[in-house]
């Protein structure tokens, strides 16, 4: 009977990466859950796992993307110093709605996605070049 040993568990992603380099194996992101990312390393004889909690804003962004899949894509804009700025939703499938929404909080963005303002133009494919 050939049973694989239990994986090693790391609390810190940097430690997992160091271990992966030591055994000559790659670090793979195997799962993105709303509140954690799970990384795994598999070598010939051993495996290791590290679950990394995500930042609260990232967790909210992931939840919003799941809740509004196919209709809106939610992301964060950044300011000129690379810091998170507005909460943004890009329209993927809400007919007649504005192409992009910008709000200061995820709660306001969620409300705006529930009752989006109307868009003013038709699809870009309907615009004919002039000249």
What helical percentage do the residues reach?
Answer: 10-25%
**Rg (CA only):** 21 Å
Which runs of at least 5 residues are low in confidence (pLDDT < 50)?
122-126
Strand content: 25-35%
Strand order of the largest sheet: 1-4-3-2
Global shape: elongated
Count all strands and give the number.
Answer: 7
Number of helices: 3
Topology record:
Layout: E1 8-10, H1 13-23, E2 27-32, E3 36-42, E4 47-53, H2 56-67, E5 72-78, E6 84-91, E7 100-103, H3 106-114
Explain what this protein looks like in three dimensions.
- By secondary structure, the chain is α+β, with helices and mostly antiparallel strands.
- 24% of the residues lie in helices and 32% in strands.
- The protein contains 3 helices and 7 strands.
- It has helices at residues 13-23, 56-67, 106-114, and strands at 8-10, 27-32, 36-42, 47-53, 72-78, 84-91, 100-103.
- The chain has a 4-stranded mixed sheet with strand order 1-4-3-2, with helices on one face. It has a 3-stranded antiparallel sheet with strand order 5-6-7, with helices on one face.
What brief labels describe this structure?
single chain; 3 helices; 7 strands; 24% helix; 32% strand; alpha+beta; 131 residues; three-stranded antiparallel beta sheet; four-stranded mixed beta sheet; elongated
In short:
By secondary structure, this protein is of the alpha+beta class. The protein is 24% helix and 32% strand. It is built from three helices and seven strands; from the N terminus they run βαβββαβββα.
């Amino acid at each position: 009977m050939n049973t694989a040993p239990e994986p090693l568990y790391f609390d810190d992603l940097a430690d997992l990466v160091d271990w992966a380099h030591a055994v000559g194996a790659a670090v793979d992101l195997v799962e993105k859950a709303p509140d954690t990312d799970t990384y795994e390393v598999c070598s010939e004889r051993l495996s290791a796992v590290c679950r990394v909690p995500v930042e609260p804003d990232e967790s909210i962004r992931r939840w919003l993307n799941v809740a509004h899949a196919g209709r809106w894509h939610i992301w964060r804009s950044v300011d000129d110093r690379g810091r998170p700025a507005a909460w943004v939703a890009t329209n993927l499938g809400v007919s007649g709605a504005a192409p992009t929404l910008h709000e200061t909080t995820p709660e306001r963005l969620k409300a705006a996605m529930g009752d989006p303002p109307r868009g003013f133009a038709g699809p870009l494919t309907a615009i004919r070049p002039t000249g």
